[in-house]
Specification:
The complex is a heterodimer. Helices cover 74% and strands 1% of the residues of chain A. Chain A is built from 13 helices and one strand, in the order E-H-H-H-H-H-H-H-H-H-H-H-H-H. Chain B has 15 helices and one strand; from the N terminus they run H-H-H-H-H-E-H-H-H-H-H-H-H-H-H-H. The longest helix of chain B has 35 residues. The chains are: A mainly alpha, B mainly alpha.
């Protein structure tokens, strides 16, 4: 139907208008509002004071460090695990559809619910995970209350659901690869890892780039597990920038500070994504 | 080792890994189900040291499910979530499909600009705009109303994009034939396009459902009062209360998880299509 392009003066605008208005009011306007707020003084003139205040704040620097650390761990973990899962459910063995469906299930559980469930399972006193570790002779670990473990526990909680989600994209990409390509590689005597790095991954480049960028964006802006399970603690060890932004707006009622934090986050995310894009496309050349 | 033996060893290894992944995927769900069917006393008493009783109810009971509905009025957040979700699905499917129809079928001034607005809107992460969005909702008097949860979620660039992708493949002759017969555009849309587009409506509906049912941050900001809060908020607040029993939380989590799971199982194909639509073709 794409080729028709009928001319009609007012009908197309009428059809699009509601959606466009909603998008402008609820999606486009808030971005600009957020950026402008960060540069506005109380009498709404231009100022850099909000950023100066923020940069003088130790909490901010700790939060930035936590955010970078968190993402350096969670992004590779999620993508590698999701990739391995997708490779396995793409194998043709009996009953594979059932495995695939089961692997998707964590995605059906919202991040809120998975955080709440894992929070109880990881509890020191009554959690089932510590109970099972006890069989191996490991003393109960304060997964969410010990500074050493809290961030890793959040990685676990988010990845349990996240990997199922990202697997869907990678699997969709894997299915798009013509099986004749694998046959050809096999006939040429290419081993498993050779095929993986020389054939599969290059052919999935677009999918992987999408997953990488989307995953980076999602994880830099993640805050629900921290808000529910750790409240940014213990000792600020899970206090990511997004949660700090949330607290600035709703706990300290400091809108300019929140606006600065979100703007900085967006700049970081955009920079990381541009770099990823460059690295991935350069490999091709 | 013969080739045949090699193949069966490989197969066995694949199954071992698949089973390990299965356990990792469903253990929390099954444990949640099991814990929701026992009393807190039973759960805690059998937890240490670990035994099979730590995992399986000694005396299964549905008491938790009864209590969360009677003492904690859990039906309220369920109703709220249903209202919000269903309203968003209806308006979302209608408006986004109309826009998608206009983008695929018509030629008009400013089309490119408007189309890029749609694309931008689904690249902007919601979390980044949620807090300024709160001021917008506030000035429109939408805080603590159903409208505040529904209206901002209706226009969704990804859903519009989904419709555009589908409408593109409808043969022009179908529409032409109806036009020759003198049918008006609303009639063509309702009688010709909609019936053959049922799959994309299912996909779009499911995506909107998943987004709204599981949405946390926005309801947390915009719908704070008890009368209007949704399931996700209710459960996260449960977990913050010191006095509440864990088994109630497990039971309420189970209820909120079972509905998406029941929708996902029969419609898996549509889900996956909708979710991956923006990545492969975009």
């Amino acid at each position: 139907m794409g080729g028709i392009y009928i001319k009609n003066k007012w009908l197309p605008y009428l059809l699009i208008l509601p959606t466009i208005i909603l998008i402008c009011v609820f999606k486009i306007y808030p971005i600009f509002d957020s950026i402008i707020q960060g540069f506005s003084s109380s009498d709404s003139g231009f100022t850099l004071d909000n950023y100066k205040l923020l940069f003088a704040d130790k909490t901010f620097w700790n939060s930035l460090k936590v955010t970078l650390k968190f993402n350096l761990i969670i992004i590779p973990v999620q993508i590698i695990v999701a990739f391995i899962m997708a490779m396995f459910v793409n194998v043709k063995v009996r009953g594979i559809e059932i495995f695939r469906t089961v692997f998707y299930l964590p995605f059906c559980i919202s991040l809120t619910i998975s955080t709440v469930i894992w929070q109880m399972m990881l509890n020191v006193n009554n959690g089932v995970v510590n109970s099972m570790l006890g069989v191996l002779g490991i003393k109960p670990i304060g997964f969410l209350i010990d500074k050493k473990w809290a961030l890793l526990s959040i990685v676990l909680i988010s990845s349990w659901r996240g990997c199922a989600y990202w697997m869907m994209f990678i699997l969709a990409g894997l299915k798009g690869v013509d099986s004749a390509v694998y046959e050809a590689a096999k006939i040429d005597g290419s081993g498993f890892f050779n095929t993986l790095f020389r054939v599969t991954i290059p052919m999935l480049k677009n999918t992987l780039l999408f997953v990488l960028v989307a995953n980076t964006t999602a994880n830099f802006l993640l805050f629900a597990p921290m808000q529910i399970a750790t409240d940014g603690g213990p000792q600020g060890s899970t206090n990511v920038l997004m949660y700090e932004a949330y607290k600035s707006a709703f706990k300290y009622s400091n809108r300019p500070r929140q606006a600065c934090l979100v703007t900085i986050l967006l700049v970081i995310v955009m920079t990381v994504c541009v770099v990823q894009n460059k690295l991935m496309t350069e490999k091709e050349a | 080792m013969t080739l045949r033996q090699k193949a069966s060893v490989k197969k066995a290894a694949i199954y071992v890994v698949l089973i390990f992944m299965t356990v990792a995927s469903i253990f929390p769900i099954l444990f949640c189900l099991s814990a929701s069917l026992r009393t807190q006393d039973d759960l805690f008493r059998n937890m240490f040291p670990f035994s099979i009783k730590s995992l399986i109810p000694v005396a299964p009971t549905i008491q938790n499910y009864i209590i969360i509905f009677t003492d904690y009025a859990f039906w309220r957040p369920i109703m709220n979530t249903l209202i919000v979700t269903i309203a968003t699905i209806i308006f979302g499917c209608l408006l986004n499909s109309m826009a998608g129809f206009a983008f695929t079928c018509f030629d008009f001034k400013g089309k490119k600009v408007l189309y890029s607005l749609v694309l931008i809107s689904f690249m902007v992460p919601f979390e980044a705009i949620a807090i300024p969005l709160y001021s917008v909702a506030n000035s429109l008097h939408m805080v603590d109303t159903y409208a505040g949860m529904i209206i901002p979620a209706i226009a969704d660039g990804l859903v519009t994009f989904l419709f555009i992708q589908f409408f593109k493949d409808i043969p022009p002759s179908l529409v032409e034939a109806a036009r020759v017969d003198g049918a008006k555009w609303p009639v063509i849309f309702a009688k010709v396009i909609m019936p053959i587009s049922i799959p994309v409506f299912v996909t779009a509906g499911l995506m909107i459902f998943m987004n709204q049912w599981n949405s946390y941050m926005w309801p947390l900001l915009v719908a704070r009062s008890k009368e209007i809060r949704t399931i996700q908020i209710a459960i996260s607040q449960f977990s913050g209360e010191r006095s509440i029993q864990w088994t109630y939380i497990y039971a309420s989590s189970m209820i909120s998880a079972i509905i998406p799971i029941c929708l996902f199982l029969p419609f898996q194909k549509y889900f996956v299509e909708g979710i991956t639509a923006g990545s492969v073709k975009g």
